[in-house]
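Annotators were shown the component list below and the corresponding predicted structure, then asked to write short factual statements about the assembly.
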Amino acid sequence: MPPTPQRDFGAPTIVIGAGPHGLAAAALLRRSGVPAVILERSDRVGASWTQRYDHLRLHTTPGASKLPGLSVPRQAGPWVSRDEYVRYLERYVVHHRLDVRVATPVQRIERAEPGRGTQWLVHSSDGPVPAGAVVVATGRCHTPNLPHWPGRSTFTGTLLHSAHYRSPALYRGQHVLVVGAGNSGTEIASVLAGAGAGRVRIAVRTPPNILPRSSARWHAVGRLTEALPLAWRDRTSLLTQRLAVPDLTSRGLPRPRAGLYTRNVREGVNPVLDHGFVDAVRSGRVEPVEAVQAFDGPDVLLADGTRLRPDTVIAATGYRPNLHDLVGSLGVLDEAGQPLAVGARTHPEAPRLYFAGYTNPLTGVLRQAGIEARAIAHAFRGETARSPLPAPRSATA
Ligand SMILES: Cc1cc2nc3c(=O)[nH]c(=O)nc-3n(C[C@H](O)[C@H](O)[C@H](O)COP(=O)(O)OP(=O)(O)OC[C@H]3O[C@@H](n4cnc5c(N)ncnc54)[C@H](O)[C@@H]3O)c2cc1C
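Structure shown to annotators:
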């Protein structure tokens, strides 16, 4: 990267979280001459990825998974493994010479007394740090969401969230019920079925939109058709699914009624990119069942009244951003705990407090990291040009 004149804003810019969104934002701020300090609670970058299951591969292509300024190496192949992606994030830090302070959890952000360029006080394990601007990038998938099913605490089998599932080895010979048919649930169920689990069922509340994995390039189609009406896009996506994915109704998995675009807009849900799930259902190795309603001792009660007695239940039931402790007192979250303004937009009462990584676009979250980072760096340049702070001084990055 060419030398960049640095700007003196009086108080540092702080990025919270060294995941893809935080790293991309810091890299593009730095490229704009704004050195940012990244505070990361764990002891390494890309910590969320290191904690995900062993056989995880990205369901987005390398081109849609790279962050600004550095390609994912060709050797990583078309479906990048978890460990390759962690190595890529580590290289990204070195490549952009990012300043990451690990083992520095941030507890909360509060408004600072107005001073020389200071907007925020960031309370971390190192004490309160004044900041001119803050980018919150602590992850949309921050905290596992485990539903409060009635009788959950009476369950005598093993219940875990997919965030704590690592590999199929532990479940050999077991009866496993996976709850939730998103990308994680369908992938975990098919891997378990192929790796010696005794019986694998998947509880499905809403039949997923499924596309072949090879159609990861549908992201490009999604971008090209963005301007068209939702209903039209839905109809074409349902038609594509009819042509590309066999009907699994007789196996207990009917075709989805809502199109993938509507589900994304209404529920923030993305389609399943098939990693072998369709074959596993078709051959009976994974058995779809109704949604889970309650637990009762050793049993799981389903919506159609069926009782199952699995050894293990793996809840692939999603995540929450859990931003309340961090920014809950600032009036910047909606009722569901989501930031009211994301990306380059800031809340009118919270200037220079940015949120990166809190949407789930069909075009892919990792691709979105670059888009939001660019927008934030751009907004930042606009703000600093208007600010009465000292003029930029020349220096080299
Ligand atoms: C199983 C799974 C597979 C996925 N696969 C894909 C895929 O193939 N393609 C795709 O585009 N998207 C995928 N996603 C979605 C998304 O890309 C990832 O969740 C991605 O990690 C989001 O990046 P992020 O930087 O927003 O959050 P994260 O990667 O979660 O990074 C947040 C960072 O903030 C740190 N942090 C949190 N709280 C604090 C705090 N208080 N103080 C300091 N640091 C803190 C965390 O330790 C973490 O390092 C996947 C998600 C999951 C759950």
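Statements collected:
1. The pocket of flavin-adenine dinucleotide is lined by residues 16-22, 39-42, 47-48, 52, 56, 58-60, 65, 105-106, 137-142, 184, 326, 357, 364-366 (CB under 6 Å).
2. The chain has a mean pLDDT of 90.
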